Amino acid sequence: MRPIQSLLDEYGDSHQNPVNKAVHWICVPAIVISLLGLLWSIPIPSFFHQVALGPITLNWAIIFMAFAMIYYVRLSIPLALGMLLIVAGFTFIIYQLSNSNLLPLWAISLLIFATAWIGQFWGHKVEGKKPSFLKDVQFLLIGPVWLLHFIYRKLGVGY
């Protein structure tokens, strides 16, 4: 596996334009939340209902997050800890959306997902470079930690 800095640098190569960077600060979290919301909406086997995490029962989003966290731990424990906090916040948002009376969670998530990806592709059109994940699918998981690494650098936290 390539070291985290190499992945962050490679991801950053196609994210130099300030407009594209700003778009990513909005769209990457929106995509993560919406993807998790879509996974949360997939029906689960009944035995999953026996595994409760407080008010939340085990679901496909939590399983996906567990595997993503393993990937992040292998790359960088400090970044994985930051992502754990972020994902906990996203889980709270998704839980609130799932209990809202607006639309079903899958519909809200699908609207956010489509809108955020339109934003991402527009940002890359402004950038003049293709999204990194078209070269390597693991960059779909690098996007969130790429944003987090800027926060860590600003705070002087090593990763």
- What's the number of extended β-strand segments? 2
Shape: globular
How much helical structure, as a percent, in the residues?
over 70%
- Average pLDDT, all residues: 92
- How much of the sequence lies in strands comes to under 5%
Going by helix content, strand content and strand pairing, the class is mainly alpha
- Compressed to H and E, one letter per element, the order equals HHEEHHHH
Number of helices: 6
Which parts are unreliable, with pLDDT below 50 for 5 consecutive residues or more? none
Q: How large, in whole angstroms, is the Cα Rg?
A: 16 Å
Instruction: Give the number of domains.
Output: 1
User: Strands across the major sheet, in which order?
Assistant: 1-2
Task: Describe the structure in your own words.
- Strand 1 and strand 2 form a beta hairpin.
- The model has no long low-confidence stretch (mean pLDDT 92).
- Helix 2 packs across helix 3, helix 2 crosses helix 4 and helix 3 packs antiparallel against helix 4.
- The protein is 70% helix and 3% strand.
- It has a two-stranded antiparallel ribbon with strand order 1-2.
- It is globular and about 45 Å long.
- It is built from 6 helices and 2 strands; from the N terminus they run ααββαααα.
- The chain has one domain.
- It is mostly helical and 159 residues long.
